[in-house]
Write a structure and sequence with these properties.
7 strands; 2 helices; two-stranded antiparallel ribbon
Length: about 150
């Protein structure tokens, strides 16, 4: 699993002109699932995400997590995060889980994040053509790969 985590002032996702998810201050998370991801991977990634200390404390140091600041999280599926573009000019997506595997993993990840935060987690629509808007805060952008 690979996550691209962006600290935002606000973010939203629309599908076919319809708003499907929107947050205020918090994290926009782009999530790509690999075929080897399992429950342990999802649990590890969830713990890491919600405890990642990338929000400023009173001294301006990045010492607070999204939990500490009571921020929101918007999760958007993005299989292209697992692209391999080392050869040629057309990326290979063989490292991404096929939709039948990725969708349940993605949905479980969203549920785990919601449980950890104690609040609903808005999302895009899995497999849809989405438009994502954000106001990056910092900017702070972290790429997080699963241990495997």
């Amino acid at each position: 699993m690979r996550l691209v985590i962006q600290r935002v002032k606000e973010a939203s996702v629309t599908v076919a002109g319809r708003l499907t998810g929107q947050i205020g201050p918090g994290l926009l998370v782009l999530a790509g699932c690999a075929p080897t991801d399992d429950e342990a991977t999802l649990a590890w990634m969830t713990r890491k995400l919600v405890n990642l200390r990338i929000f400023s404390d009173d001294n301006g140091q990045m010492n607070r997590s999204v939990l500490d600041v009571a921020g929101q999280v918007l999760v958007v599926s993005q299989f292209t995060l697992l692209a391999d573009a080392r050869k040629g000019n057309r990326p290979s997506y063989i490292g991404a889980a096929p939709p039948a595997v990725a969708e349940p993993l993605y949905e479980r990840f969203v549920a785990l994040v919601a449980q950890a935060l104690g609040q609903p987690v808005p999302t895009g629509i899995f497999g849809a053509d989405m438009q994502v808007s954000l106001l990056n805060d910092g900017p702070v952008t972290i790429v997080l790969d699963s241990p495997a």
